[in-house]
Write a structure and sequence with these properties.
7-stranded mixed beta barrel; single chain; alpha/beta; Aconitase, domain 3; 19% strand; binds alpha-methylisocitric acid; binds iron/sulfur cluster
């Protein structure tokens, strides 16, 4: 067990119950929550279903940053519901245009040493100021708002010891890409990363936040930096010095594993298509023609990032063969670069200015052309996430992105022969919270606006004794929640489960053949149950609980894989679907999409006990397989009840 680390101190201060050995279930008190609009509507509908008058957290904030296109009435309907339900339940509301939830939260609300639970997988961004900030499904966040402690597995703490300082043109993004090349996106479930060592003080808070943000791609519970003088200076510059407390690891703090990284050895890197851990150096990729460059997302759209970009673009013009777009992370950033003239330099160069929000990162516009290379400062490049099938998206630092925008090809920024525009830490940010609406002290008069597209969480019955399972899909390794539940143009359906369910696993639909939704609905309507078969690291990526709700709606009762990622596994349980793992991996090869998997004693689920299932082939052959699970007693009760909303209390 790790001793005297920052993470352990935060857990100790928030400990409610449970074990203290890595892997044991532990419940912690949640101080703050955040939601965004794409996951938020469901989260507040679930909170309403819990019949709680007012949230019980110290602070809860509802952001609108994902669904900004307002293509049809659905998005604005969601926004109206979110604004009024926030007022009713005692939640702050950050209006559309105010910026991306993680960036705004870091600027205006994050507090070192506190816990934050957010219905978005990049919630760990606020680990950059020493919070224990965790991404979860909307229902877990609704429960936290209702005052229920968050259950997690007591973490293994991976210490990343930083030494040295970054060289010119090498960025925080390169640090996290380097680490992704070491730790990869799989096999890290149940761990928390804590940064320590002499190198920490050389990184500014926005740089730390880039690192903790993209730490989500490891599949860890979260990533945390200590809270030190740099944190203090950042909070003071945000006019919030009063919330600062120092939070450092004790001398001799023990980590379960230590990775050493000398920042001076980090060089410009890229995550190549189509996984954040497919890492190359820019030197290796240099010369590759680029058609599109976009700077933005919660990873790289801070004031520091855009000032670097503006300095690189000043008095220059974007290459004729590149389309170049910039989305600032927040209204604060946009307003500051507007007032100091940096935005004018960016506009003059030919960059296209997008609104402060998620935008292209979640496939809302800016889809690249067929067979072209897109360079993005984002955190995810899962296949098709850009909105273009067969896309080729690379994830890079703002420095590398800008170099490519100027030259039309992947270029090592060190080759540009420019002076590195080192950006000093800001002494005073421009503070204007007019776009954040605090909840009224008395909300009895507030009426919640529910337009016709605001549905309700679908219902589910208890887990049946016998799972008469049809394998409705068999997929391979690293299936992300973007594969399961596409976002982009479908995002506006998040409040309408029957409509959104039609696109589950859409990327696997073959021309002229029934879709997953059609196959699963046919199985359900025949009174049988759906089973999804996957391989390693199933459910990577986003926190979207729709990747569980929609399969539940379509009658899925079990997912069987080699390993299921943390947030997705919790979401499956929350919606009454069993997350199961193959005991013998070779069984995967023996199962086909048309097979039947029967589990006779499903309701006899026991902690630590395996289940037996029978696989029957269409030719009459059958064989048995053994399935394991990691569900706790509480998880089992939730699954047996058919989901958390069916459980009393
Ligand atoms: C993402 O980056 O994939 C998202 C969109 O922010 C998701 C949340 C969602 O699907 O609404 C996430 O990261 O959790
Ligand atoms: Fe928004 Fe992209 Fe960040 Fe998700 S990763 S919160 S879509 S900016």
């Amino acid at each position: 067990m790790a001793k005297g680390t920052v993470v352990q101190k935060i857990i100790d201060r928030h400990y409610v119950s449970g074990g203290k050995q890595p892997g044991e279930p532990v419940a912690v008190r949640i101080d703050q929550t955040l939601t965004q609009d794409a996951t938020g509507t469901m989260a507040y509908l679930e909170l309403e279903a819990m019949k709680i008058d007012r949230v019980k957290t110290e602070l809860s904030v509802s952001y609108v940053d994902h669904n900004m296109m307002q293509n049809g009435p659905e998005n604005r309907n969601d926004h109206l519901y979110l604004q009024t339900v926030a007022a009713k339940k005692g939640v702050y509301f950050s209006r559309p245009g105010n910026g991306i939830c993680h960036q705004v939260h870091l600027e205006r609300f994050g507090v070192p040493g506190k816990t934050l639970l957010g219905s978005d997988s990049h919630t760990p961004t606020n680990g950059g100021i020493g919070m224990m900030a965790i991404g979860a499904g909307g229902l877990d966040v609704a429960l936290a708002m209702a005052g229920v402690p968050f259950r997690m597995s007591y973490p293994k703490i991976i210490g990343v010891e930083l030494s040295g300082a970054l060289s010119s043109w090498c960025a925080a993004k390169d640090v996290i890409l380097k680490l992704l090349s070491v730790l990869s996106t799989k096999g890290n479930v149940g761990c928390i990363i804590e940064y320590f060592g002499d190198g920490v003080s050389t990184l500014s808070v926005p740089e730390r936040a880039t690192i903790t943000n993209m730490g989500a791609e490891f599949g860890v519970t979260t990533s945390v930096f200590p809270s030190d003088d740099k944190t203090k200076a950042f909070l003071e510059a945000q006019g919030r010095g009063d919330v600062w407390t120092e939070l450092l690891p004790d001398a001799g703090a023990e980590y379960d594993r230590v990775i050493k990284l000398d920042l001076s050895e980090v060089e410009p890197m890229a995550a190549c298509p189509s996984s954040p851990d497919n890492i190359s150096t820019i030197r290796e990729l240099a010369g590759k023609k680029v058609d599109q460059v976009i700077i933005g997302s919660c990873t790289n759209s801070s004031y520091r990032d855009l000032m670097i970009v503006a300095a690189m673009l000043k008095n220059k013009r974007v290459s004729d063969t590149v389309t170049f777009a910039i989305a600032p992370g927040s209204k604060q950033v946009l307003e500051m670069i507007s007032r100091n003239g940096a935005l004018a330099d960016i506009i003059a160069s030919g960059a296209r200015i997008l609104e402060a929000g998620c935008g292209a990162c979640i496939g809302q516009g800016q889809s690249p052309a067929d067979d072209t290379v897109s360079l993005r400062t984002f955190n995810r490049n899962f296949a098709g996430r850009t909105g273009t099938k067969g896309d080729s998206a690379y994830l890079v630092s703002p420095e590398v992105a800008c170099a490519a925008a100027l030259t039309g090809a992947i270029t090592d920024p060190r080759e540009l022969k420019m002076d590195y525009p080192r950006i000093e830490d800001v002494e005073e940010f421009l503070i204007n919270d007019d776009m954040i609406i605090p909840p009224p002290a008395d909300s009895s008069q507030v009426e919640i606006i529910r337009k016709p597209t605001i549905g309700s969480p679908p219902e589910n019955g208890p887990l049946p004794e016998v799972i008469d399972g049809a394998v409705v899909i068999k997929v391979g390794d690293k299936i992300t929640t973007d594969h399961i539940m596409p976002a982009g143009i479908h995002l506006k359906l998040r409040s309408n489960i029957p409509a959104y369910s039609k696109v589950v696993f859409e990327c696997f639909t073959e021309e002229g053949k029934p879709s997953f939704a059609e196959r699963a609905a046919a199985v359900r309507d025949a009174g049988r149950h759906g089973v999804i078969v996957g391989r390693d690291s199933y459910g990577q990526g986003s926190s979207r609980e729709h990747a569980a709700i929609c399969p539940m709606y379509l009658g899925v009762k079990a997912v069987i894989a080699f390993a299921i990622e943390r947030i997705h596994s919790a979401n499956l349980i929350n919606f009454g679907i069993m997350p199961l793992v193959f005991v013998d991996h070779s069984d995967y090869d023996r199962i086909d999409q048309t097979d039947t998997i029967t589990i006779n004693n499903a309701r006899e689920l026991k902690v630590g006990a395996n289940l037996n299932a029978t696989v029957s082939k269409s030719n009459g052959e059958s064989f048995s397989i053994e399935l394991a699970h990691k569900m706790s007693e509480e998880d089992i009760q939730i699954v047996l009840a058919g989901g958390r909303l069916n459980c009393a209390g």
